[in-house]
Amino acid sequence: MTVLFECTYQGRRHIGLGLPREGEPLRLVPLGDRSLADLLLAGDDLADAEAVTVPAGEVTLRPPLLPDHPGGAMVGGFMQTHNVKVDADTPAQPNWFLKGLGDVLKLPGQDLRAPDGSVALTEEAEVVLVHVTDAAGRPRYVGYTFGNDLTDIGRFRRHRGHLSYAKLCDAAVAPWLFLGEPPRHVTGQVTIERDGEP
Predict the structure, then answer these.
(1) Of the residues 62, 80, 113, which one is the last residue of a structural domain?
(2) CATH code of the domain in which 50 resides
(3) N or C: the chain end with fewer CB closer than 10 Å?
(4) What whole-number distance in Å separates Cα of residue 11 and Cα of residue 43?
(5) Strand-pair category, 96-101 with 121-133
């Protein structure tokens, strides 16, 4: 399976090829005036692109396909996919919710923000599907990554109609973009640090 990641190296955007191994140098392809979204929509093969090899410590990773301007990305999801959240007494809600614009996406290890007055925050490990809007305005699936969706579940428990408001928190996403169909089963571990303690 092909794995890509975006990063900044020496002030310029690059695409990384493969899943990095700790301490090993990275193979990067300069983006120049192109975008990864355009390359994926065009189906360009990046395996033969001219690449540079750099030390891993000299790059800054980015969430997959995040535009330079956060308003160029929209982060959303689907509600009522987990039976533990809904029951017969839950009022009808829209199937889709908005988390926010691109600035709600954080990388692992970065601080996650929640609105003032949050009641009870919880994290939810997720398979994150990544879409790009093509020239005709249609969303096109390009791959997946993994994330941790922060939710004010306390707000939802107080008022079952407020799940969409409960989702207005940051989310952490892995920088790796896996090209291909999303997995049907995933095992792993999520850790949240609060006040310096996991």
Answers:
(1) 62
(2) 2.30.30
(3) C
(4) 26
(5) unpaired
If we measure between CA atoms, which residue out of 178, 145, 182 comes closest to residue 17? 178
Six-digit token string for 113: 């923000």
Residue of 129 and 98 predicted with greater confidence: 129
Tabulate helix, strand, coil % of the chain (nearest 5): 15, 35, 45
> pLDDT value at position 193?
79
**Token duo for residue 171:** 């989310």
pLDDT digits (tens, 9 = 90+) for 121-140: 888 888 999 999 888 999 99
Place of tokens 């899943």: 19
- The label of the residue with tokens 């809904």 reads 86
DSSP string, 33-90: T--HHHHHHHT---TTS--EEE-GGGEEEE-TT--SSGGG-EEEEESS-SGGG--TTS
